[in-house]
Specification:
With 328 residues, the chain is of the alpha/beta class. It is built from 14 helices and 12 strands.
Length: 328
């Protein structure tokens, strides 16, 4: 893997130019090519640290920078048209493996190619979304690492109740247009009665008005489910929670880094590290159809203590002790 190209991904503009045929023809014998499509912005903490782990994992498996591996990267910036365009471009180059980061990239990649092996990272519902036939037997040209099992969604409501014990109402920010949105909301809804919480669904396509309307009644909290719409509107959602003094639980740490209160979700860095292993196995001849989709094995709890103080919330010491990282 060329360090210059990966550092471009991590800190500068993503590469957008195609490889000329003359350049490809001059590549050293045995050079393998990986294409990477990132659904959103590559500059988030999670993506940066994830790609660092991915690079390290490949190096440990013997893929030498600039000698045995070349990487071509595109980012979609949360725009479906841009993602589809990049997916078609990358598939047309017929790389040895495509790494698709985020659920919004997997569908377009599968539409663009049914032959090039695809390893996805952070896909919430690969079976329900039609990416694979089953977790144990993917059956096609895609496999990888799912973002979470839906049962995790109940944990978000439990955490919200822990940090705000008197809370009786919770707004659930979700995208009802995607299978993952429906699945997450269903689990939260099933857990709500036992915790004595009344839910108010807020469509992420109308988040500003929805949160403002919910906040008028007071004594509530927010749960922000996982979706590309939530990621794209990260700063707005965090700002709304602060503006309306609402404790909020998020699905991953980028929200907390941006000023959100608390997050609980899969360790994306670990998924990238594991993805390097799948890429290595495919480059050595194994097929995606024979590599089972894996659920997360590591989750991380991140807490922003400054935000808690701004909201006037005293977090339980037991919860702070469980945190993987506390931002002070």
């Amino acid at each position: 893997m060329q360090r210059r190209e990966l550092m471009t991904l991590l800190g500068g503009a993503a590469a957008t130019t195609a490889w000329p045929r003359s350049v490809r023809a001059q590549q050293p014998s045995g050079m393998r090519r990986i294409a990477v499509l990132v659904g959103n912005n590559r500059n988030s903490h999670a993506i940066k640290t994830g790609f660092a782990a991915f690079e390290q994992g490949l190096q440990q498996l013997g893929w030498t920078d600039g000698r045995s591996l070349r990487v071509d990267v595109r980012e979609g910036m949360g725009d479906t048209d841009i993602i589809r365009k990049h997916a078609a471009e990358l598939a047309a180059r017929v790389p040895d493996v495509i790494v698709a980061v985020g659920s919004t990239t997997v569908g377009p990649m599968l539409q663009a190619t049914r032959t090039v092996p695809i390893v996805f990272v952070y896909a919430p519902d690969p079976v329900g979304s039609g990416f694979v036939n089953s977790l144990s037997r993917p059956g096609g040209n895609a496999t990888g690492f799912m973002q979470f099992e839906y049962s995790l969604s109940a944990k978000w409501l439990e955490l919200l109740k822990k940090i705000a014990p008197g809370m009786k109402r919770a707004a659930v920010l979700w995208d009802p247009a995607i299978p993952a949105g429906i699945g997450q909301y269903a689990v939260i809804q099933s857990a709500a009665p036992s915790l004595g919480v009344e839910l108010s669904p807020v469509n992420l396509r109308d988040v500003e008005q929805g949160v403002a309307a919910f906040a008028r009644s007071g004594s509530g909290g927010l749960i922000v489910t996982s979706s590309i719409l939530a990621v794209v509107q990260r700063d707005l959602i965090v700002s709304l929670a602060a503006q309306h003094k609402l404790p909020a639980v998020y699905s991953f740490r980028d929200f907390v880094d941006a000023g959100g209160l608390i997050s609980y979700g899969a360790d994306l860095t670990d998924q990238f590290r594991l993805a390097a292993g799948y890429v290595d196995r495919i480059l050595k001849g194994e097929k995606p159809a024979d590599l089972p989709v894996q659920a997360p094995t590591r989750y991380e709890l991140i807490i922003n203590l400054m935000t808690a103080k701004a909201l006037g919330i005293t977090l339980p010491p037991t919860l702070l002790a469980q945190a993987d990282d506390v931002i002070e």
